[in-house]
Design a protein that fits this description.
With 145 residues, the chain is mainly α. It is built from 5 helices and no strands. The protein starts with 5 loop residues before the first helix and ends in a 9-residue tail after the last helix.
Length: 145
């Protein structure tokens, strides 16, 4: 068979409909997710939920007023009985104790999480809490750990 003359070859190329370019190997994958250090997303969520402008749960989902205070109030009364019996507490005093203890524990767990992240772990361990308390200089509360 003889090859077609050069002018017919050009016409055949022009008349052929264009097909979409085929994807190259490896281009069909999803875009790579950005690298995040372990625990940084968790820390961001902690900060977001702690911000005063946003409640972690919607108002309708919150328990009845005082329902969260009752277990804490029982704990306070139980601990106080070891020091003196027949103690009375104002409700505002129990609220202040609860807010202060929650703030302390949240800060301690933030520092504990940073210690775990520094050790290239995501899970916190008792040694992380001990290190965080030692760095902070917490002297009292020996019954915690």
């Amino acid at each position: 068979r003889t090859p077609p003359p050069p002018n017919q070859k050009k016409e055949r190329r022009r008349l052929r409909p264009h097909s979409p370019p085929r994807p190259r190997a490896g281009h069909g994958r999803r875009q790579k997710k950005p690298h995040r250090y372990a625990g940084t997303v968790a820390l961001r969520e902690i900060r977001r939920y702690q911000s005063p402008r946003e409640l972690p749960m919607p108002q309708a989902a919150l328990p009845a007023p005082g329902a969260r205070r009752l277990p804490f109030q029982r704990l306070v009364r139980e601990i106080a009985q070891d020091f003196k019996t027949d103690l009375r507490f104002q409700s505002s005093a129990v609220m202040a104790l609860q807010e202060a203890s929650e703030a302390y524990l949240v800060g301690l767990f933030e520092d504990t999480n940073l210690c775990a992240i520094h050790a290239k772990r995501v899970t916190i361990m008792p040694k992380d809490i001990q290190l965080a308390r030692r760095i902070r200089g917490d002297q009292g509360l020996g019954f915690l750990l």
